[in-house]
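I had to read the description of the data format several times before I understood it. Each protein is reduced to its one-letter sequence and a matching series of backbone shape codes. The format is easy to grasp once an entry is in front of the reader. For illustration, here is how one protein appears when written out as sequence plus structure tokens:
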Amino acid sequence: MRPLAAAALVLALPAFAGPRDDVSKPLKVIVNNVRYGKDLAALKSFAGEEQGRFLLGDDWARGSDAQRKEFVELFHQLFAKIAFPKIRKNFENLDTVIYDEPTLTGDKASIASTILINHPMKKQELKVKYDVVKGPGGYRVIDVAVLGDSMLQGIRDDQIRPIMKDGGWDNLLKLMREKNAELKDVVLK
């Protein structure tokens, strides 16, 4: 192969990214952004509409466009304010993240990873599985399961369903606004 042709091939390699690269890209973005305190940027890699559909089930369609939009905004703010500081603490000693090959089903994919935490006192290995969906801008995260426990399923079953049963959309959004106000000291950057 001629040197010029070899150079052109090397430069073109990123264009030949495989499924693992496409699916793992938003995960890498989230990990790096959360790790370095760029929470608002991390939130852009989450699929809010799909999360809302999962969390609210049939009630999602019963909400108005304004209610659904406010739910996604509040859910992401609350998630970032509550979960990201804990995740950031774990990532202080992040060593490596290894991604498996994804399982693709139409516009959705699942991909598992192993996160290695190299703490001076204790090394940890976390098994994490992500469910993502492909949209116009690439893949975005719907759900994360740590040790087999779905983040969204727990939130749906333990919090959203009881709230919706007691007062529907108005009650849910009211309680989410109140919780967000309680966390006003947690500033997202």
Notes: The radius of gyration is 19 Å. The chain has a mean pLDDT of 89.
